Amino acid sequence: MLRRCGFNRRWRQWIYMCISTAHFSILVNGTPCGFFASSRGLRQGDPLSPLLFIIVMEALSRLLARARDGGYISGFDVGRVNHISISHLLFTDDTLILCGDARDQLCHLKSVFVWFQASSGLKINLGKSELVPGPHLKTKQSGMVLLRSWRLGWLAGNCSNSVPGPYGKSLWKHIRKGWPTFAKNVYFKVGDGAHIKFWQHQWCGETTLKSRFPKLYQLVSNPEASVQELASFIGSSFHWNVSFTRSIQDWELESVAEFLDVIYTTVPTPGALDTIH
C-alpha cells in the first residue's frame, strides 16, 4: 500500500521497524508477566496510527471515486451549474458514502469493499452492521449509505428530522445542523407533503410562508406542522386545516385572504412522493 502511494523503500522500512519492534506486557493479578511481540496492529495511542490510517483510507477513497467515475455508483450532485459529484466524505472515524438505492449500485458498492479488504486487510464486521431504513424523499440521486465506524446504515432520501438512536449523534448530528440553511435554498414540489414543513419550507410561491406572512406565523398553533398534517381531504373536496391561537381580527383579514390565495394554488397528492428542485 505504501509503495503504491509513492513512498520509497527506506521510508517503508522505517515504518515497518516502528511497527515490528513494539513489545507489550500485561498484568496478571497485578503482576507484570514479561514482554511479547505484537503480531499485527499498533500500540494504543501510537502517533503513527492516524497517519497510517489516512494512507490506508486513501485506497478506499480512490476505489469509490473510480466506481463513481465509471458509473457504477451515482454519487450526489452539488450545485446547479458546474456541479460536483460527491460519492463519499471521510472523517476521523466516520465514512459517509452517497449512492443510489438501486440493487445494482449496492452490489457494486459491495464489490468495492471486497477489493478494499483484499488490498488492506480491513474487513467490515457484518455482525456489527445494521440496516437502518430512513424517510423516503424522491430526488435525482435518491439513497444514502452511512458507514459510521464501519457500521452500515441505510438512509434512503433526505433526513430533515432528528435521527433516532446512535445515528443522531456525532457525524450525522453535525451534518444535520446545516439542513435549515440548505432548505432555504431549495424549492420543494409537493407530493403528499409528508416531508415538507408547511411554514418553513419553500413549496408555494417564491419564499417560505413564514417569511411572507410573519405576523400570521406568530399566531399559528403548530409552526412545525408538515404540509400533509394540515391537508384535509373529505371525499372529493379538499381544504387546508390551518389553526391559530386566537381569532383573526378585522385588520388581519386582508393578510389572511392573501395567505389563502397563496396556499390554495397547490394541492397535495396522496401517495405521491415529495421532490426537491
TrEMBL record:
Endpoints of the signal sequence: none
InterPro entries registered for this protein in UniProt: DNA/RNA_pol_sf, Retrotransposon-Effector_Assoc, RT_dom
Domain Reverse transcriptase: 1-146
Pfam families noted in UniProt: RVT_1
Source organism superkingdom: Eukaryota
PANTHER family given in the database record: NON-LTR RETROLELEMENT REVERSE TRANSCRIPTASE-LIKE PROTEIN-RELATED (PTHR46890), REVERSE TRANSCRIPTASE DOMAIN-CONTAINING PROTEIN (PTHR46890:SF1)
Protein name, as recorded: Reverse transcriptase domain-containing protein
Native species: Fagus sylvatica (Beechnut)
